[in-house]
Design goal:
It is built from five helices and seven strands. With 214 residues, the chain is an alpha/beta fold. The protein has a single domain, classed as P-loop containing nucleotide triphosphate hydrolases (Rossmann fold), CATH 3.40.50.300. Strands 1-3-4-2-5-6-7 form a seven-stranded mixed β-sheet, with helices on both faces. Helix 1 crosses helix 5.
Length: 214
């Protein structure tokens, strides 16, 4: 009998390692959930809010500062993964191409990856790079949950309307993708997102146990 991974597991997150290429990734075992998003979508702030640790992920007002895959250990078997910000980062084109390939290969080959949290600024959702990430994940049958970040920047009515518009768009192109409102400063949606991530990590445990008994 397996008990669900407790939602407060994310509070145990601590930095594990950084990687610039797939060859530098930690061993591919256990379960991990990755975070991706356009530069300046609020990814680092979301990681800090979800883990209840102000300094877990570095935040910056300069887009594109995260240029490594950063791994945070929850325990020996479970991890959170901060993927490089993509989009309009002011980096050389060769660097952009490198990270585009690394991200695609990571999503395609990482066996311990249980799902992707895709962050979008609620004021600018479903840009080209967001759709590319959704397409990659759909091709790999990878679960995706979207956080519409900075929801506090809009009024409640406007935020709700945007949520419905994104849900409608996803229903037409990526029906298996879920979405919610999120705000790191106000903690809107933090508990909801934390519970889903914990569920994904627990699903990884169940799958591994099942494979071990076969």
């Amino acid at each position: 009998m397996h008990q669900a991974t407790p939602p407060n597991l994310l509070r145990q997150a601590c930095f594990l390692t950084s990687a610039n290429a797939l060859s530098q990734l930690p061993p591919d075992h256990g379960a991990e959930v990755a975070f991706a998003g356009r530069s300046n979508a609020g990814k680092s702030s979301a990681l800090n809010a979800l883990s209840a640790q102000k300094g877990l992920a570095r935040t910056s007002k300069t887009p594109g500062r995260t240029q490594l895959i950063n791994f945070f250990a929850l325990n020996e078997q479970q991890r959170l993964v901060d993927l490089p910000g993509y989009g309009y980062a002011k980096v050389p084109e060769a660097v952009k191409r490198h990270w585009q390939q690394v991200l695609a290969d990571y999503l395609r080959t990482r066996k311990s990856l249980r799902g992707l949290i895709l962050l979008m600024d609620i004021r600018h959702p479903l840009k080209d790079f967001d759709r590319q990430m959704l397409d990659w994940c759909a091709h790999q049958q990878m679960p995706v949950h979207i956080l519409l970040t900075k929801a506090d920047k809009l009024g409640r009515g406007a935020a709700g309307n945007t949520l419905q518009q994104v849900r409608k768009a996803l229903g037409e192109t990526h029906p298996n993708t879920s979405v919610q409102l999120f705000s790191s400063p106000s903690r809107l949606g933090v508990d909801e997102a934390r519970a889903l991530i914990s569920e994904w990590l627990h699903t990884g445990d169940v799958q591994q146990d099942s494979e071990a008994t076969e």
